[in-house]
Amino acid sequence: MNYSYTNDSAFAQEQDAIDFFNSYRSRFLFPQHEGKDAVYFCGNSLGLQPQSTAYLMQQELKDWATFGVEGHFRAKNPWMHYHHLFSESLSKIVGAQKEEVVACNTLSVNLHLLLISFYQPTAKRFKIIMEAGAFPSDQYAIETQVKMHHLDPQEAILELHPREGEHTLRPEDIIATIHATGNELALVLLGGVNYYTGQLFDMQSITAAAHQVGALAGYDLAHAVGNVPLALHDWKVDFACWCSYKYLNSGPGGVGGIFVHEKHGNNPATFRLAGWWGNDEKTRFKMQKGFVPQKGAASWQMSNAPVFNMVAHRASLDIYDKTSVALLRKKSLHLTGYMEYLLNLCTHLPFEIITPKNNEERGCQLSLLFKSEGKQLFEFLEKNGVIADWREPNVIRIAPVPLYNSYEDCFRFYELLMQYKVVSIN
Question: Strand, coil or helix: what is 419?
Fold first, then answer.
């Protein structure tokens, strides 16, 4: 999709004036720089705090003080069923049925739990396909799961590398590797959006290819959930997990979430580690021997809901309930395209954008790979009120989040980049 932009502040102000989401900025708390809101482009690492978080937290603290243990039943939002507050909102965000999602645990814990269920290697079918340079938590989880089955990671794990001279994976190469691995393939596990390059993978096609050779497909959606449209149920994805502290704005270490397709989640024969909170709710408090999994993703819960940890998650999802990922995506395409347009005007700086140019193959992140001066520029931006993300060895990640970032944020960033030319010369 082609858009028309101009590099002046009037254009940015005009776009903000007609932006449906511009009023949403007031729902979030921005870090301050010299008495003004900082330019915050780090939502792909930690989202901003919703204004309502403190109020909701006070409600739970009040109920704890008032009711003690009886808050499990008598609190305004009874803690006994607290995780149910998130199912409908999450199902809309990831494109699932309510029973296929649950907010629980944390990302790495959930990834291990799901791999225990869905990586069941045999002597013939034991290989896992993942992207090279995946986020460390994915690398560590897969390596140790393979070792747990007494297999050699060098033989069991197939890493997908970009072609020589390229930074992202070609979709056709992913599919070709799946078909080439064939009946030796047990599982495809990818990040929905690669954390380093910002590449959005075609999860529907990848899942279909995995199923064609008899394998399963799962995804780490840490950088995809709340960022790009998802249709996990319709794509027939087997499982997925995510964190909530990036685009879902649910605070550092916020509660994670999982998706399990109904064909697995509603099948009692699907192996899962047993936790008290995953047991059938009707018999949970009978304290009987023998785990009876409840239907759906909720049976992968380990313990009762961490209510205080979940408060910010609820505050953020309340905001998502007032809009849709489709509307956010519409702005995201235009806003990220505007940022890309401005960056391409900064020809004096030694970087290239390694995120795919095709806006359908990326979310709201742009990764800038520097030949030199990257860290110096990053520190210059910090000193001037821009909060971005530095990734070793030489990448600055910028995430213009459609929910709270503005066109003027992008233009301010561009102005600073143009200033840096003068600063570096002097």
Answer: helix
Residue-wise pLDDT tens digits, 74-126: 999 999 999 999 999 999 999 999 999 999 999 999 999 999 999 999 999 99
- Give the chain's domains with CATH numbers: 9-49+325-425 (3.90.1150.10), 57-320 (3.40.640.10)
For residue 398, the cross-strand partners are 366
What's the DSSP call for residue 339? H
Could you tell me the pTM of the whole model?
A: 0.95
The 10s digit of each residue's pLDDT in 331-356 is 999 999 999 999 999 999 999 999 99
Bridge partners (DSSP) listed for residue 217:
188
Neighbours of 360 (CB within 10 A): 10
Do residues 254 and 224 lie in contact, with contact meaning Cβ atoms separated by under 8 Å?
Answer: no
Starting at the edge strand found earlier in the chain, the sheet holding 389-391 runs 351-353, 366-370, 395-398, 389-391
Contact between residue 292 and residue 274 where contact means Cβ atoms under 8 Å apart: no
Closest CA to 296 of 121, 104, 119, 138: 104
Q: What are phi and psi of 27, to 5 degrees?
A: -85, -5
Whose CA is closest to 24, among 46, 50, 47, 42? 50
How far CA 302 is from CA of 141, 282, 351, 362, in Å, comes to 18, 17, 45, 34
Farthest-apart Cα atoms in the chain, separation: 75
> Which among 222, 214, 223 has a CA at the least distance from the CA of 111?
222
Question: Nearest CA to 340 among 323, 324, 364, 360?
Answer: 364
CA distance 291 to 35: 56
